[in-house]
Amino acid sequence: MLLAADTRPAGGAAIGEVILATGIGLGLTALLLGLVFLHRTRRSTILTRVGTRLGKATGVPAWVALPTILTTVSLLVALLGMLWDIALHIGVGRDEGPLANPAHFLILFGLFGVFAGGVLACAMPLDEKPGPSAVRFLRGWDVPVGGIILTAAGFYSLLGFPLDDVWHRMFGQDVTLWGPTHLMLIGGAGLSIIGLLLLEQEGHGGLSTDDGDRKVGQTARFIRQASAMGGLLLGMSVFQGEYDFDVPQFRLVLEPLMIAGAAGIALVAARLFMGRGGALAAVAFFLVVRGGIALIVGPGFGELLPTFPLYLGSAIVVELLALSAGLARRPLAFGAVAGVGIGTVGFATEWLWTQFTQTLSWNRDILVEGTLMAIVGGVVGGLLGALLASGLRRRLPRPAVARTVLVGSLVVLAAAVANGLIATVPDDVEATFGIEDVQQDPRTANVTVQLEPADFVDDPAWVQITSWQGDGLVVTQLERTGEGAYRTTEPVPLHGTWKTLLRIHDGRVLTAVPIYLPADEALGEEEVPAEDGMTRSAIPEIEILQRELKDAEGSLWTISNLVVLACTLALIAAISWGVGRYSRRASVRDPYPDTPADPPATDSSSPASELGTR
């Protein structure tokens, strides 16, 4: 283990691995472009034949069937790789190199499959206009807008790979899921589902009277739509991955915000688009996939077992609210009301779920702020989900209304995230440790803690000891023995490559005290030994949890983050354009259809009034 630690780089990948990874990427790209060239010049019919065969089974054109199945399988592979990768980094720390981590191959090939699915969706239509919202690419070559969105999302994710290496070279290894380039990898994959949803709608011609109702396509299409909406829920749920592994590096109130936001987007969209049972079907798909992957990563691969949100309470709330025909026929109003339900009732069910699944479960410290954050996340997510469903059903509100809701929701979401990221570190808190060895080789010990000042914490979210990156993870909630006094309930490791630290989270306070840190030659860091009776000051958690970070020049750090932000906003703008183009180019002028999959309504109100835009 010590030899392995010495070979783990603290910056970017070795040049040899960069060259090899670049070669793999170029080879895959050449193969993809070769297939496209042969297909477009009609030298090969393999894509058409495979797509047609798949399309017969699913009832969609070849240019929808093949890209959809390729992208779906690729996303599942990438999700497995991502959760495996997180478990590996928590358990063993830095990689010996990006190609030495088997999970990276699953992520790379999975994301390339998403990109390839988009390219094939754009390339496969021959001698036809793929839906009324298609875009003219070249003379005689029109491409579906869903394929464009899918390609853009896949490219955005893949762009995260080279940028991640550049980022590590400049700023060191940010061992957190929320590194800017890491968010590109997972964000693009999650948002690619919107491209798939658009693609399937375009495959049905855009002018059918289906509008996503279960009555057309029957059970098979309902299952495909449930898989897509469940996939969207999967994609939106990966952002709280650190909480799923009990190693969050941010305040606890961010978790209910992210869970409610994901539920709002995916479940509101599922119910409005699919009809009765849509939200429950999406959650069922989510639970099966996340549960299966958890078993593969945990018992299967012998790594840490990831937990996941339940979402069942939120789905039930959405389904019950949709029984009100008047509310369900006004998408934006429904999204907002459902968001409040998700942020309250859904929050309560997730609160109970964390008591069984997370060591760092929710408690009274986040009751008020956590509920408010969940309501904000639910309402914002519900509005965005309502916009998505309205776009897929070709009934978006007026452009001014849609843009206002979209931009306003993103601004509010950004403000809520910023609030969750704001944390304070006290400058006058110390901890004195008592170390009672349980085992000498390898060294483990029971630890007692005395905080000074003793009344520093009141009703904290957690006072715990985390030991990680020593070929495992130990998260121990401390038992309170007196004012400011705590003790462990199990021995903690103090040897090898383990990093063991006391972590305290109370309100906005988020701080840590190192107990034992190994020497790290690549970082030039000396060992921080664990000694009985030692007293150490509280410092920012990031200095321990992300020990590999380098001090960066302020302007360079700011510019780099702005570049990532610009790429993200460009993807969001592309998706918004795509949904809007499909909705308005494919729009029919009939009265708004009956509530999806429910009994027909008796009134015939105008589309604008039923969307609540007048």
Helix count, DSSP H or I runs of 4 or more residues: 19
Described by the principal axes of the CA atoms, the overall outline is globular
What's the β-strand tally? 13
Strand content: 5-15%
Outline the biggest β-sheet: 6 strands, antiparallel
Derived structural class? alpha+beta
Brief overview:
This protein has 614 residues and is an alpha+beta fold.
SSE layout:
Elements: H1 2-6, H2 15-40, H3 46-58, H4 62-92, H5 102-123, E1 135-138, E2 141-143, H6 145-171, H7 180-203, H8 218-237, H9 241-244, H10 254-274, H11 278-300, H12 312-321, H13 325-328, H14 331-357, H15 367-392, H16 399-421, E3 430-440, E4 443-452, E5 462-468, E6 473-477, E7 479-482, E8 485-487, E9 492-493, E10 499-506, E11 509-516, E12 535-537, E13 539-540, H17 542-545, H18 554-585, H19 607-610
Antiparallel strand pairs: 1-2, 3-4, 3-12, 4-8, 4-9, 5-6, 5-10, 7-8, 10-11, 11-13
Notes on the structure:
With 614 residues, the protein is α+β, with helices and mostly antiparallel strands. It folds into 3 domains: 1-206, no CATH class; 236-425 and 572-614, no CATH class; 430-537, Immunoglobulin-like. Helices cover 56% and strands 11% of the residues. It has helices at residues 2-6, 15-40, 46-58, 62-92, 102-123, 145-171, 180-203, 218-237, 241-244, 254-274, 278-300, 312-321, 325-328, 331-357, 367-392, 399-421, 542-545, 554-585, 607-610, and strands at 135-138, 141-143, 430-440, 443-452, 462-468, 473-477, 479-482, 485-487, 492-493, 499-506, 509-516, 535-537, 539-540. Strands 3, 4, 7, 8, 9 and 12 form a 6-stranded antiparallel beta sheet that branches. The longest helix is centred in the last third of the chain and has 32 residues, at 554-585. The protein is globular, with a radius of gyration of 25 Å. Mean pLDDT is 89; it is low at 1-6, 206-216 and 589-614.
